[in-house]
Design brief:
The complex is a heterodimer of chains A (275) and B (289).
Chain A (H helix, E strand, L loop, with lengths): L4 H33 L3 H4 L13 H9 L2 H33 L3 H6 L1 H4 L2 H14 L6 H25 L3 H9 L4 H12 L1 H17 L2 H6 L7 H12 L3 H21 L1 H8 L7
Chain B lengths: L4 H32 L2 E3 L5 E3 L3 H8 L1 H35 L4 H12 L2 H11 L6 H8 L14 H26 L3 H9 L4 H29 L3 H6 L11 H10 L4 H29 L2
Antiparallel strand pairs in B: 1-2
Chain lengths: 275, 289
């Protein structure tokens, strides 16, 4: 560059300072949520807001005592795990076939679910599930959440299958291996990393999804995310408990995201970007 | 590769479950919504063919045009903020080179949060009377704001929250693009004595355009369907000032049970999303290098 080395160094410092400011902006709101969840109720609405305080677990205890938080948590866990499993079961062989045959249209149709607004699907699903009396059932939630998870699994796994050298498949075929055997004996073990990434991403997105459970669950099957809406109604008087609920709901996706962070960007962009 | 009939049958068997699922849960419902958008649907689900009545009603409905305007306003504002901030953040991260793993995790954290949780935390931060945001403003000598409670500010505030949540995501995409740029162009620029700003605007940013368009596609799809954050924080208020098409369609469907009209609104919104994605795809082909 044309600039002198000392100018270079100053730009380096400036860069670091700006990055720290950006980091603070990124982290501060989440940190504030966590801090507020450990405050007594008079402290959490104190004005001016306090940064230093005596921490308490009252808010978490009140969630336990006053709301069916555990039940909602179990509902979320059931719906999320089952829809992730279903997404993997359906999506993995599909991704293998797309990679093998290069026929991509079935995978492209699943992108409809990513482009159309959720309400568009919710209208016919609601009418369909009402007809067969399934509204409020776990199955209605699992099936609809699989519409989120399956496309994620297909598109995240596709590059992993594409990366397997074709010669391995061809050799197996020469040895008389049928496509189904190639799939589960050869290809599946080679994409095990992709399987963990796609199941974690599918889990996070299913866990975070709000709209379907908002309409299709009832008081027995309500997921944590859908129940958040009720917490806000009650939380207008109790910010501490609201933030405790928010912290607990956010915990699983945050922990999982940190585990897969290396693959996160390419996974989230459905392979459009190599992270 | 030689594909015999038995091979074809096996491949079909492997893909059959997902194809059936896609048809039943995605393709059929999509077509069903197109169909009900031409029906008068009663709350009990009785349907009667109604021609284009729902679409005629839509064109005459002031709330539809209001929703369309809010959708586009929120979209353009958020997308611009996220692209500018995201690119700036990516340039900072790129220059820093070595990035400890936990710092990277910090930058990932906002967009892994459920949007619903982001809404909950910002509700208390932006509370007009007790929130931390107004405390910071007033201690800096600035006037406090009503944020989400103000009809004039609710859309910019939602755009700010979404920008907080998704800027790091855009930044990581752009960072990937920066890291894949050939170093040779920088060396050539350096030899030619190009200044920093010149290198940035004449070399780096033009070469980044394809990556930026990819980021735009990915964000557009989400931003045009903006729902969770609005529903959690304002439910479309105050005074419908944040009622996007998606919120309006949802309320028509599940508060007023006018499924036919809600269907017409959702088909229109999908057409808008598809149009934007196709336009951006053209743009991507135009800027490819």
């Amino acid at each position: 560059m044309t600039s002198t080395p000392s100018a270079d160094r100053w730009i380096g410092y400036l860069n670091t300072v700006l990055l720290m400011v950006a980091g603070i902006i990124v982290v501060a709101p989440t940190l504030w949520m966590v801090l507020s969840s450990f405050k007594f109720s008079h402290e959490v609405t104190a004005y001016p807001p306090t940064l230093f305080f005596t921490p308490t677990l009252t808010n978490y205890v009140s969630l336990w005592e006053r709301t069916p938080f555990i039940q909602y948590g179990i509902n979320s866990a059931v719906v999320t795990s089952a829809s992730t499993a279903l997404g993997i079961l359906l999506g993995t062989p599909a991704a293998f076939v797309v990679s093998w045959t290069r026929i991509t249209w079935p995978a492209i149709v699943t992108l409809l679910a990513r482009m159309a607004p959720g309400t568009l699907f919710l209208l016919p699903w609601y009418l369909m599930f009402r007809q067969i009396d399934m509204i409020g059932s776990y199955w209605a939630l699992i099936l609809t959440h699989a519409v989120i998870t399956m496309p994620i699994v297909i598109w995240v796994l596709l590059p992993f299958f594409d990366n397997i050298p074709r010669s391995i498949f061809e050799a197996a075929q020469v040895d008389g291996c049928s496509p189904i055997r190639v799939f589960y004996r050869i290809a599946l073990p080679l994409v095990s990393a992709g399987l963990s990434v796609s199941s974690i991403l599918a889990f996070v997105f299913s866990w975070n999804y709000f709209l379907f459970a908002l309409v299709l669950s009832n008081s027995d099957t309500k997921t944590l995310i859908a129940a958040s809406f009720n917490f806000i109604g009650e939380g207008s008087t109790n910010w501490g408990a609201l933030m405790a609920a928010a912290t607990l709901i956010a915990l699983p996706p945050l922990v999982l995201a940190i585990i897969v962070q290396r693959w996160l960007v390419s996974g989230l962009t459905l392979g459009a970007v190599k992270g | 590769m030689d594909t015999s009939n038995s091979q074809k049958a096996q491949l079909a068997a492997l893909s059959a479950p997902s194809v059936i699922f896609t048809v039943v849960m995605i393709a059929f419902p999509f077509c069903y919504t197109i169909w009900i958008s031409f029906q008068a649907v009663s709350a009990t689900g009785m349907m009667r063919f109604d021609g284009v009545a729902n679409y005629v009603r839509m064109v005459k409905d002031g709330q539809f045009w209001n929703g369309l305007w809010i959708t586009i306003y929120l979209y353009v504002l958020s997308l611009t903020l996220q692209l500018v901030c995201g690119t700036a953040l990516a340039l900072l991260l790129f220059r820093a080179r070595r990035l400890p793993g936990f710092i990277r995790s910090l930058f990932i954290s906002p967009f892994m949060l459920p949007p619903v949780v982001a809404g909950m935390m910002w509700l208390i931060i932006l509370d007009p009377s007790l929130g931390a945001a107004n405390y910071i403003l007033t201690s800096l000598g600035l006037p406090p704001s009503n944020w989400l409670a103000s009809p004039a500010l609710v859309v910019p505030t939602l755009a700010l929250i979404d920008t907080w949540q998704w800027t790091p995501y855009v930044a990581l995409i752009v960072l990937g693009g920066l890291q894949s740029l050939p170093p040779s162009v920088y060396e050539a620029a350096e030899i030619d004595g190009a200044s920093r700003t010149r290198t940035l605007f004449r070399i780096t940013l033009p070469l980044l355009l394809p990556t930026l368009v990819t980021a735009m596609v990915l964000r557009s799809v989400d931003l045009l369907r903006f729902f969770d954050l609005i529903y959690i924080t304002t439910q479309g208020g105050p005074a419908n000032a944040s009622t996007t098409l998606n919120i309006y369609g949802f309320r028509m469907g599940f508060e007023f049970f006018q499924f036919g009209y809600a269907g017409a609104l959702m088909i229109t919104l999908s057409a808008l999303v598809l149009g934007v994605v196709l336009a951006l795809n053209r743009l991507r082909n135009a800027v490819a290098w």
